[in-house]
């Protein structure tokens, strides 16, 4: 097992009542119950305990754009405070890319990453798993990210679930690349066919809207490898909105952004941020809770607006 250097030792999970779970407020991604993951019933039969984790995404620290978010310096700290205020601690937090906003200046890039580090250091939940988005990594092939945060792709295991972090952003062409695909194939070959597998990535692995860079050039190769396993779920960011797609038996869930919303795929000529609506502040930003009642693949998803941040 290999972890990002941003990871820390885990804290024990605490059970959440449903009314407590619904109090989870305004995270930039979602809180995920393991019992909602495909194949979880088999694990429970083997004595696996349920747990949940929090996904944050697309903070774009360093972004300035009052027309789309006049609170650009406030949403990330508020999300950290919201995680710290949860009635029960998640088992871990994962941030699925675009920690910072892109810049051509390598020094500014590192400054923004260090500022991001200082803010997320206030998280009381450990471990924290980080991965890059194209804003963090595409202009230097991930050099600054690796320097400050560690590897851009890695795996870890938690309570009977195998987690894979894929890097489809360090290559400026939006590819995973042959070397990483070989690494993924080797890792998956060591997992049983019914293993519960969760993949974190930044861009969608499938062709959601290639014209808007909402795709991965060789994502089909990764999906083909993952499709050999029966219980795979993918969580990603990048598109700044809720989206749920199936490729074969694999479910893909997109997270909302902490910084600005983007329009629905190909709904307008250009992929421009949704303007700030003063009458509905934080519209399009928020968190997603995922739970399950009954069958382990029966997802119940609730989207909540970021304005509920305390």
Key features of this structure:
310 residues; alpha/beta; Purple Acid Phosphatase, chain A, domain 2; 6-stranded mixed β-sheet; 8 helices; 12 strands; disordered N terminus
Give the strand content.
15-25%
Widest sheet: strand ordering:
4-3-2-1-11-12
Question: Mean pLDDT, as a whole number?
Answer: 82
The first-level CATH class name:
Alpha Beta
Strand tally, please? Answer: 12
Whole-angstrom Rg: 18 Å
Shape by Cα distribution: globular
Whole-number tally of structural domains: 1
Category by helix and strand content: alpha/beta
Main sheet characteristics: 6 strands, mixed
How far the N terminus sits from the C terminus, by CA atoms, comes to 36 Å
